[in-house]
Design a protein that fits this description.
The chain is mainly β and 198 residues long. Helices cover 2% and strands 40% of the residues.
């Protein structure tokens, strides 16, 4: 089963958020606030994922595999592309692919503005816009997911019953606060060395 969705994810500028935690993948992002931006033109073609409004965007990504590979992606200016795309501290050159340890997947640097990452059942296409990164995400087998994080939980089929209701800006709790509930929905966070965000 392949699941595709269009989502906007925003966070506090400078803060780090867990995007996906799964068996083979830990993916976090540092958000950046932008009040303007240009639209990249790559090989004479204006890109689609352009800056649209002031807000927080994915500025820097850190992915870690269960085998210990560290992927680091840093956004750059619209006319330049990514500032950095690395695996274990080594630059991934445009036009090259790096296979990840233990057959967990790969990363390809398709162009100055596009990188593709496949880890386990997750497939990401990262596109550099103007100091932020757009992402397209595919999941090969959504039925096998046991993921957490901002995006990970969105795609999981598992739900956790609660009695929290939201009515016109007010919430009513008839059960203990979330901090008192079971923590089985919270992933353990393991930190790759290159980003303090994981």
């Amino acid at each position: 089963m392949l699941l595709l969705s269009l989502l906007q994810v925003h966070g506090v500028s400078g803060e780090v958020y867990n995007i996906v935690s799964d068996v083979d993948l830990q993916y976090n992002s540092r958000f950046v606030f932008l009040d303007r931006g240009a639209c990249p033109v790559v090989n004479g073609v204006r890109q689609k994922g352009c800056y649209s409004h002031p807000g927080s965007y994915l500025g820097e990504l850190g992915l870690k595999t269960s085998a210990g590979d560290h992927i680091h992606v840093v956004s750059g200016q619209a006319n330049y592309g990514f500032v950095a795309v690395t695996v274990n501290g080594r630059a991934v050159q445009v036009g090259s692919t790096v296979l990840l340890a233990e057959g967990l997947g790969s990363i390809s640097r398709n162009s100055t503005h596009l990188a593709s990452v496949q880890i386990g059942d997750w497939e990401f296409e990262f596109e550099n816009s103007d100091m932020f990164i757009n992402q397209k995400v595919r999941v090969a087998d959504v039925d096998k997911l046991r993921s957490h994080g901002m995006l990970g939980q969105t795609w999981r089929k598992t739900t956790y019953p609660n009695a929290i209701r939201h009515i016109q800006g007010q919430s009513t709790r008839s059960e203990p606060a979330r901090s008192q509930l079971s923590n089985d929905h919270m992933p353990p966070l393991a930190a790759p060395a290159h980003l303090a965000l994981l």
